[in-house]
């Protein structure tokens, strides 16, 4: 199953992330804050597509994350920043 998980590095999200991994789901993780220089955090989430969306509100554009999660390909256009 393809799952888009917000808050994966939060308290509840982190536990959910590990449970979903155990069940072998394909994960895309969305973060409000994530430093590319944080090697420990990158290592913790190395098996999922990672997206930085900033503050989440009614103007957050989810299309890029959702299309990538569903099809496995980039959607183009303006959307959240995909972390390498």
What report would you give on this structure?
The chain has helices at residues 11-22, 39-44, 63-71; strands at residues 2-6, 26-31, 49-52, 81-83. It is of the alpha/beta class. It has one domain (2-83). A four-stranded mixed β-sheet has the order 1-2-3-4, sandwiched between helices. The longest helix is centred in the N-terminal third of the chain and has 12 residues, at 11-22. The protein is globular and about 35 Å long. The two termini are 22 Å apart.
The whole-angstrom Rg is 12 Å
How far the N terminus sits from the C terminus, by CA atoms, comes to 22 Å
Overall form: globular
Mean pLDDT: 76
Helix and strand element order: EHEHEHE
By DSSP (H or I, 4+ residues per run), the number of helices equals: 3
Strand tally:
4
Uncertain runs are 70-79
Largest sheet composition: 4 strands, mixed
How much β-strand is present in the residues?
Answer: 15-25%
> How much helicity do the residues have?
25-40%
Structural class: alpha/beta
What count of domains describes the coordinates? 1
Instruction: Give the neighbour order of strands across the main sheet.
Output: 1-2-3-4
Q: Could you give a quick summary of the protein structure above?
A:
The protein has 84 residues and is α/β, with parallel strands linked by helices. 32% of the residues lie in helices and 21% in strands.
């Amino acid at each position: 199953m393809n799952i888009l998980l917000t808050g994966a590095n939060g308290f509840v999200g982190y536990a959910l992330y590990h449970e979903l991994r155990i069940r072998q789901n394909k994960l895309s993780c969305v973060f409000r804050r994530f430093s590319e220089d944080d090697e420990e955090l990158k290592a913790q989430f190395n098996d999922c597509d990672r997206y930085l969306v900033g503050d989440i509100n009614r103007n957050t554009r989810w299309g890029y994350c959702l299309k990538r999660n569903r099809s496995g390909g980039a959607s183009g256009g303006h959307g959240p920043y995909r972390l390498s």
